[in-house]
Amino acid sequence: ITQQIESRAKAAGSLPQSDKYDDNSVSGTTLANNQIPSQYTKAVAETGQKKYVLMDGGGNDCLINNNGDAALTAATSLFQTMASDDVQKVVYFFYPDPIGSNFSSLKTCLDSLRPKMKALCDGLTAPKCYWLDLRDTWNGHNEYTADGIHPTAEGSKATGDAIWDTMVENCVAQ
pLDDT tens track of the chain, all 174 residues? Predict the structure, then answer.
């Protein structure tokens, strides 16, 4: 996903060909238990203040712990930290629907968390948060995943393109 965003940014002249975005994402992490918030803290400690943040979060809180409310609480705290750090804009991209009957409890949790997380994002003014629901990108494209939840290369490209389009639309790092 990051590679696709960088590719689009370089093609647009927004990112020099030799540069990269800081990517501190770690697959399988949760908002609760301070995993995703610590990725943000690590990024600030290693490379300094951040103006823009691209993120998701809550999916593994639902998948592993079936606890969307803990994710929402952690996201609220993380956004407060970002505000005190003078982050200007966040693009928050939220998960497509999982594919397959073995993910019914995950879908239920995501369906409950999605409107709460969107309301949190939409209500922020510092940082300004831009919501991207990936269901619009993924619906009708079962080829975007091989296991029902994780993106294939094609799914990563489509996701990166949707994130880049949201960045352009909202003047985020471009």
Answer: 999 999 999 999 999 999 999 999 999 999 999 999 999 999 999 999 999 999 999 999 999 999 999 999 999 999 999 999 999 999 999 999 999 989 999 999 999 999 999 999 999 999 999 999 999 999 999 999 999 999 999 999 999 999 999 999 999 976
DSSP 87-128: --EEEEEEPPPP-SGGGHHHHHHHHHHHHHHHHHHHH-BTTE
User: What are residue 93's DSSP bridge partners?
Assistant: 132
pTM for the model = 0.95
Amino acid at 96: P
How open is the CA angle 75-21-121, to the nearest 5 degrees?
Answer: 25
